[in-house]
């Protein structure tokens, strides 16, 4: 299974969640809320990632299985039960692709004859339409309420009642034409006159043409870590306060010691000593979509190198890992680019276009410990004209790592 950077982030979040979702230290209301959220998440998914199996499924299964084993039939499949959690657990413990080899005596016994309540399947199209109507009604209600000084519920109710009472009886086209003519003093339209052809409405905010795939679309900048701490709720994460040269008022920024900064979560805890994260320069990816990592929103990503896996080798996240270093004297916010691939980056990368996923496959370190980009490693660029390995640099020099050669950068 191939995992995108978004998948990897989600896996990391679920691994953290697995440590809390079955915790004995939480109150019952919080436990019920977390289980309800998980149940809803799984209502339209085969696995936690949707259709891809991952270590997150196994971690959460290990946490939940002992709990679900003691659930009553009502808790499992009652009208307020957790049907989807039970179905997912049964899939994980039996599906060969997970390879759990759970002994029969340890498996959760799922008896189809003991299903208490059969929920209707979720109709995705109908659900989307329902939410759309609710949003429209809420917006209309809020506007009416603001004007009348009432509540949204009152306004929506009154609006519906008024529309129902004021609905006119159906009039034929001729009567309508006569009324309009009387009102504006114009000649009433006759049946003989041809209807004016409707002109197609111009498309609003027409999307710009897609730019060719290029690492130049990725906003790489020199970042200055002003401070880094352990994530309060995730053992594998650091939370860093990073200056990447943003102007005041930039989205997803705050102020720290008089500087505009971003909060960045990185899965480097246990791989890079915390003291090495303090007050240092790094290379940051600044136009990925911000993601919330165990309750803290991360607005950038730190580039780091790790050894390339051998064919068939499992990634155990054991390291070593080395941060990519900008050249000496580089300043926070300075543009970082691959030589020969200069260009204007996107304001924010569209995850659906997979620019980061495709290009990142070519990020590597050379034998001289330089960070670089190999277009030959990117399937979508193999037919292009540029095939030389391009060093990662600023105007002041080339970015490097401490010792890893032939490594991947991500």
TrEMBL record:
Keywords per UniProt: RNA-binding, tRNA-binding
GO CC field: methionyl glutamyl tRNA synthetase complex
Pfam hit, one: Arc1p_N_like
Compositionally skewed regions (Basic and acidic residues) per UniProt: 119-129, 168-178, 189-200
Gene3D superfamilies: 1.20.1050.130, Nucleic acid-binding proteins (2.40.50.140)
Region (Disordered): 119-153, 159-178, 183-212
Boundaries of every TRNA-binding domain copy: 214-337
Compositional bias per record (Low complexity), positions renumbered to this chain: 137-153, 202-212
PROSITE patterns assigned to the protein according to its UniProt record, in alphabetical order: TRBD
Domain of life: Eukaryota
InterPro entries: Arc1-like_N (IPR053836), Glutathione-S-Trfase_C_sf (IPR036282), NA-bd_OB-fold (IPR012340), tRNA-bd_dom (IPR002547), Tyrosine-tRNA_ligase_regulator (IPR051270)
Gene Ontology MF term list: tRNA binding
PANTHER family attached to this UniProt entry: AMINOACYL TRNA SYNTHASE COMPLEX-INTERACTING MULTIFUNCTIONAL PROTEIN 1, TRNA-AMINOACYLATION COFACTOR ARC1 FAMILY MEMBER
Protein name (record): tRNA-binding domain-containing protein
Origin species: Baudoinia panamericana (strain UAMH 10762)
């Amino acid at each position: 299974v191939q995992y995108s950077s978004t998948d990897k982030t989600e896996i990391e979040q679920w691994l953290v969640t697995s440590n809390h979702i079955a915790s004995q230290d939480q109150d019952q209301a919080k436990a019920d809320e977390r289980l309800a959220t998980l149940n809803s998440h799984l209502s339209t998914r085969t696995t936690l990632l949707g259709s891809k199996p991952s270590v997150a499924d196994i971690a959460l299964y290990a946490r939940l299985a002992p709990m679900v084993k003691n659930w009553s039939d009502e808790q499992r499949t009652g009208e307020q039960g957790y049907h989807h959690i039970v179905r997912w657990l049964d899939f994980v413990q039996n599906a060969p692709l997970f390879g759990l080899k759970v002994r029969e005596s340890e498996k959760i016994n799922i008896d189809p004859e003991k299903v208490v309540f059969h929920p209707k399947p979720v109709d995705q199209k109908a659900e989307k339409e329902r939410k759309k109507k609710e949003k429209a009604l809420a917006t209309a209600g809020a506007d009416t309420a603001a004007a009348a000084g009432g509540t949204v519920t009152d306004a929506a109710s009154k609006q519906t009642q008024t529309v129902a009472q004021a609905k006119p009886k159906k009039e034929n086209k001729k009567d309508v034409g006569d009324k309009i003519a009387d009102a504006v003093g114009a000649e009433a339209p006759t049946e003989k006159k041809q209807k004016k052809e409707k002109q197609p409405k111009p498309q609003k905010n027409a999307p710009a043409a897609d730019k060719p795939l290029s690492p130049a679309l990725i906003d790489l900048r020199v970042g200055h870590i002003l401070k880094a701490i352990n994530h309060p709720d995730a053992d594998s994460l650091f939370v860093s306060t990073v200056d990447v040269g943003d102007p005041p008022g930039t989205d997803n920024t705050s102020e720290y010691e008089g500087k505009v900064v971003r909060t960045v979560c990185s899965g480097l805890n246990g791989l890079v000593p915390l003291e090495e994260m303090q007050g240092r320069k790094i290379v940051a990816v600044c136009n990925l979509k911000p993601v919330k990592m165990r309750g803290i929103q991360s607005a950038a990503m730190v580039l780091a190198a790790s050894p390339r896996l051998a064919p068939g080798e499992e990634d155990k996240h054991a390291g070593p890992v080395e941060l990519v270093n900008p050249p000496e004297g580089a300043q926070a916010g300075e543009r970082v680019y691959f030589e020969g691939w200069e260009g204007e980056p996107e304001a924010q990368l569209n995850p659906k276009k997979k620019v980061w996923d495709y290009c990142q496959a070519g990020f590597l370190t050379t034998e001289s410990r330089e960070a670089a980009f190999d277009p030959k490693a990117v399937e979508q660029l193999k037919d292009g004209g540029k095939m030389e390995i391009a060093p990662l640099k600023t105007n002041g020099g080339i970015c490097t790592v401490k010792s890893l050669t032939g490594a991947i950068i991500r």
